[in-house]
């Protein structure tokens, strides 16, 4: 299987779900790549460990459809535990549609 290559400089990436393991690592990789002029990280909690050059935005899942999500590359980063654990990490059917 051929590894995909990200091309074209000065792109905008949006990462939804920056709070977890997957999202943090995706953001780290995007900042190191160099193709992105803008990286917007959207999550439901405030960002504790902010990475320089990344714009962080807090939004509830209910308000996601009101955001301007125009970008070149879109990353939805929900850890698999969100779908299986219940409790604090439970995704309702309404939120699951995103």
Overall description:
The structure is a single chain. The protein has three helices and four strands. α1 links the parallel β1 (about 10-15) and β2 (about 35-45). The longest helix is centred in the N-terminal third of the chain and has 13 residues, at about 20-35. It is an alpha/beta fold.
Low-confidence residue ranges: none
> How much beta, percentage-wise?
15-25%
The shape is: globular
Gap between N and C termini: 29 Å
Secondary-structure-derived class: alpha/beta
Number of strands: 4
Helix content: 10-25%
SSE pattern, N- to C-terminal: EHEEEHH
In order across it, which strands form the biggest sheet?
Answer: 3-2-1-4
Give the helix tally. Answer: 3
Keywords:
21% helix; 98 residues; 3 helices
Gist of the model:
With 98 residues, the protein is α/β, with parallel strands linked by helices. 21% of the residues lie in helices and 23% in strands.
Question: How does the SSE layout of this entry go?
Answer:
Blueprint: E1 11-16, H1 21-33, E2 36-43, E3 54-58, E4 73-76, H2 81-84, H3 93-96
Parallel strand pairs: 1-2, 1-4, 2-3
């Amino acid at each position: 299987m051929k590894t995909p290559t990200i091309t074209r400089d000065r792109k905008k990436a949006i990462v939804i779900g920056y709070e977890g393991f997957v999202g943090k690592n995706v953001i780290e990789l995007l900042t190191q790549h160099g193709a992105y002029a803008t990286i917007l990280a959207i999550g439901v909690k405030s960002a504790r460990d902010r990475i320089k050059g990344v714009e962080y935005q807090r939004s509830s899942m209910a308000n996601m459809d009101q955001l301007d999500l125009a970008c070149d590359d879109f990353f939805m980063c929900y850890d698999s535990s969100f779908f299986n654990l219940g409790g604090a990490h439970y995704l309702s059917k309404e939120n699951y549609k995103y």
